[in-house]
Design goal:
The chain has 397 residues and is of the alpha+beta class. 27% of the residues lie in helices and 26% in strands.
Length: 397
């Protein structure tokens, strides 16, 4: 489909979703965002759903301002994926050992490594700018300085919620490794701190929603937020890179005889801010639950723990600010999913996948998400599909 344009106060709301299918609270959030004085454009992805301040699945382009709550508390959250030389014929009938090996190598939930992971100790791994990155920790907000040791030990860890590590097959039978995570606790604490700072500023007192509080260009508060925002986005990128290196090492050990090789890793943020130029104007583009889909950009659009995921290539549609969806998108809140579904439902919907099937992950049941195939179909003018993947192992926190 192409987009549908819905009137907004300051800018039209371009929707790659049927407005009638979007819940009322999410439509209200979109209209609220369209009232911001600094906004220059708003694009809505087919996975759109209610979020904090701004909907998940929205792309907010502003001039001289940024809204920290619209970025979200998991700054830099995103995906990584890599194609391997393994095929379905190389795999054992029982994948439980592989799942256990992944869980032993990569802490999940609130877990962390006993000692900070040193990139130089990972097989064939390079982390350009690593020392400079950690050197810049001295420049982040004083409010989170005491978290440095925790942040170093959480580097290379998964987290919980909708984060996952998956071992997948594409339609040709090739094995892919895929994972989803962000900036862990340090990103959340930086976000919470700056959202609180923004809400105190005088220019935000009359906004329609206090969660839409912004920082304005050329102010100390904006400079401080940009510094911490971009540092946290880099943390998330390093976090995924180290996890992927650990994951690759597990696969090398588990399939020694196959002498596994890996293609270049695809990686993309989907909760972040980028400085981009549109129609001759320098804008701060916030993608909250959206990936960059510039012409030729590779991206990853996952489904859920029992459905397909897609490797895509961007078509460079400037009407969407070169963006596409970040996943299937929830159609049901976590609490609603827990009330409606049982562990037996989860077992049924994840049949054939080596994964947790207990009450702790019922809120991640596939039926709580929109149908991924429809979400992909709704953005055929934003991305082209490169590969369709189906997980056979899924690790969650």
């Amino acid at each position: 489909m192409s987009y549908v344009e819905v009137p907004g106060a300051k800018v039209p709301i371009r929707m790659w979703a049927d407005p009638a299918s979007v819940e009322d609270v999410a439509m209200r959030q979109l209209r609220n965002v369209a009232t911001l004085p600094w906004i220059k454009g708003l694009a809505v992805m087919p996975d759109v759903h209610f979020g904090k301040g701004a909907t998940v699945g929205s792309v907010i382009a502003m001039h001289g301002a940024v809204c920290p709550a619209a970025v979200g508390v998991d700054i830099g959250c995103g995906m990584s994926a890599v194609k391997t030389s393994l095929t379905a014929n190389d795999l054992p009938g029982d994948l439980s050992r592989l799942r256990s090996s992944i869980e032993q190598a990569i802490p999940v939930g609130r877990g962390m490594h006993d000692d900070a992971v040193e990139p130089d100790g990972l097989y064939g791994f390079r982390a350009p700018g690593w020392d400079d990155f950690w050197g810049r920790f001295d420049g982040v907000a004083d409010a989170v300085k005491f978290r440095q040791e925790r942040a170093t030990k959480q580097m290379g860890t998964l987290g919980s919620g909708n984060h996952f590590i998956e071992f997948c097959l594409d339609e040709a039978g090739s094995v892919w490794l895929m994972l989803h995570s962000g900036s862990r606790n340090i990103g959340k604490e930086l976000a919470d701190f700056h959202i609180g700072q923004a809400q105190k500023l005088p220019h935000n007192q009359d906004l329609i929603d206090r969660d839409l509080a912004v920082f304005i260009a050329d102010t100390p508060e904006m400079a401080a937020y940009r510094n911490d925002l971009f540092w946290a986005q880099e943390y998330a990128k390093h976090n995924r890179a180290i996890m992927m290196a650990l994951f690759q090492n597990v696969v090398r050990k588990e399939f020694k005889k196959a002498k596994v090789t890996f293609e270049p890793v695809i990686s993309c943020h989907h909760n972040y801010v980028a400085e981009e130029r549109y129609e001759g104007m320098d804008l701060l583009v916030t993608r909250k639950g959206a990936i960059r889909a510039g012409s030729g950009d590779f991206g990853i659009i996952p489904g859920s723990m029992g459905t397909s995921s897609y490797i895509v290539k961007g078509l460079g549609n400037e009407k969407s600010f070169n963006s596409a969806s970040h996943g299937a998108g929830r159609k049901m809140s976590r609490n609603a999913a827990k009330r409606r579904f049982s562990t037996r439902d989860l077992e049924d919907q994840t049949r054939g996948v080596e994964c947790r099937k207990d009450s702790g992950v019922v809120d991640e049941i596939p039926a709580a998400y929109k149908p991924i195939e429809k979400v992909i179909e709704q953005q055929r003018d934003l991305v082209e599909v490169v590969a369709k993947l189906k997980q056979i192992v899924c690790v969650k926190g």
